[in-house]
Request: fold
Amino acid sequence: MCSQADCQRRRRADYHRHKIEADPEYEEVVRDSRKKWRQAHPDYQKNYWRNHTDAAEQNRRRQRQRDSKRRLQNLVKNNLVLDLKQTEAEIYLFGPAAGDLVKNNLVGSQLLIFQPVTSAGAILEKNNVMV
Reply:
């Protein structure tokens, strides 16, 4: 067994993680402890993001990626159609995430999906501009 500080820290973290998964009572104690700490330090998160601008920007970027991935997964799994037997479909996919939509079989008669390079649509929608 390694006695280095990093090894011990890793062992403690592994034990803690395993204990939370295996022991519901321990999990509840940990959850309550975290809740009490957050109540005692209500501005911690706001101050953290204010003082760690690089981390905040990275978090925003990753959240946008997660949101985009979630939207694409919803499209990929979308196979609800009224009647495909009577529809001859042509699908054209454009944009960087078009490869993720390979299994999408939601079709009317022709479906063109264009992904904007910027979020101009969101800006126009926010300003109540009809496209």
The mean pLDDT is 77. The first helix runs from residue 5 to 22. Helices lie at 5-22, 24-40, 44-51, 53-76, 120-126.
